[in-house]
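Re: that backbone. Tokens:
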């Protein structure tokens, strides 16, 4: 049963709170000098992800500064393709680099068997965090949703228009479905292990779902997410699950209703009045301050924060950003944002 003293879990259970809980995507990250020091100690980004002591430390760093209502496991969505057998490297200034799988002929190199051998240190991090975080703080586990993880696996790196994966998915849907089946199975196993280790909530990051057509969105975003939610709930019926389908606009209602997620994360481009009238009636929502306003600070940040609170604070709501904190963010602005929300009188 969820810990009813944790405001984050109370909001996910559908409670409207006078002061909404707050956490921020990428709250453990490069904007903090202590993170940069720990990252340097680790030697590389992946070494940091797979070092339970250091990954636990960087997860705790923002909690010490800002007393967030939730902590999210420090890791990366691309540990799944690496565990499946795809070569992964992070190059300075270039981001992730993978050995691209451009068609179904490349799927033979992937195997779900043995993924826990690679991912075991991450489960150890979750276990350490479950004992190290404050008693009032909830612990979020996470994974990338299958479509978003597949974009990197097929493109071999980040992309702006995703030509290779769209060509694969649209041109050979049966072959592409095999890749998605592999990712659904691996992601399910990965998240179940996180819950067993102590995660109290799961967030699925669907960062690139907005590049798909309506038909593509239904098949490659909604259906795999629905399968993962059903798989998790078969073992943990009460597990709260947040889906974050970034850039998906009017698809959000269908996403909520068809996938079975507990709550929907909102990007900064979503119209708040529409959310309150159409989406929040279906369940909790999370979001959605523009990360650039967190860099700007001052009245622009406070004015938009108040607008978000005034519009979404009348229902079950968790305050967050519309995407992750950027490295240029002044830490003092994060503290000011948290204080403003905690002092909010709706």
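Recovered sequence:
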């Amino acid at each position: 049963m969820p810990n009813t003293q944790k405001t984050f879990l109370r909001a996910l259970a559908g409670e409207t709170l006078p002061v909404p809980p707050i956490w921020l995507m990428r709250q453990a990250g490069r904007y903090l000098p202590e993170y940069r020091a720990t990252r340097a100690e680790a030697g590389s980004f992946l070494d940091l992800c797979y070092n339970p002591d250091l990954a636990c430390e960087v997860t705790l760093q923002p909690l010490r500064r800002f007393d967030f209502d939730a902590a999210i496991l420090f890791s990366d969505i691309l540990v799944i393709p690496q565990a499946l057998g795809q070569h992964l490297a992070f190059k300075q200034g270039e981001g992730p680099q993978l050995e691209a799988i451009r068609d179904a002929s490349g799927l033979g190199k992937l195997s779900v068997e043995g993924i826990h051998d690679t991912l075991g240190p991450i489960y150890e991090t979750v276990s350490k965090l479950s004992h190290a975080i404050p008693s009032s703080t909830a612990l979020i586990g996470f994974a990338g949703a299958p479509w978003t993880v597949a974009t990197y696996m097929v493109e071999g790196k980040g992309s702006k228009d995703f030509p290779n994966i769209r060509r694969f998915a649209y041109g050979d849907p049966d072959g592409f479905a095999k890749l998605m089946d592999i990712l659904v199975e691996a992601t399910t196993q990965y998240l179940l292990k996180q819950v067993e280790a102590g995660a109290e909530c799961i967030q699925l990051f669907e960062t690139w779902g907005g590049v798909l057509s309506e038909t593509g969105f239904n098949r490659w975003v909604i259906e795999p997410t629905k399968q993962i939610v059903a798989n998790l709930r078969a073992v943990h019926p009460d597990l709260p699950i947040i889906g974050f389908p970034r850039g998906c606009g009017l698809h959000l209602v269908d996403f909520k209703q068809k996938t079975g997620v507990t709550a929907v994360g909102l990007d900064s481009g979503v119209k708040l009045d529409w959310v309150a009238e159409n989406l929040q009636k279906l369940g909790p929502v999370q979001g959605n301050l523009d990360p650039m306003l967190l860099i700007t600070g001052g009245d622009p940040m406070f004015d938009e924060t108040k607008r978000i609170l005034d519009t979404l604070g009348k229902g079950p709501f968790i305050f967050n950003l519309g995407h992750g904190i950027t490295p240029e963010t002044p830490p003092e602005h994060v503290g000011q944002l948290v204080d403003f929300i905690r002092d909010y009188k709706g």
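The chain has a mean pLDDT of 96. The beta strands are 70-72, 88-91, 95-98, 138-144, 201-206, 241-245, 263-265, 285-289, 317-321.
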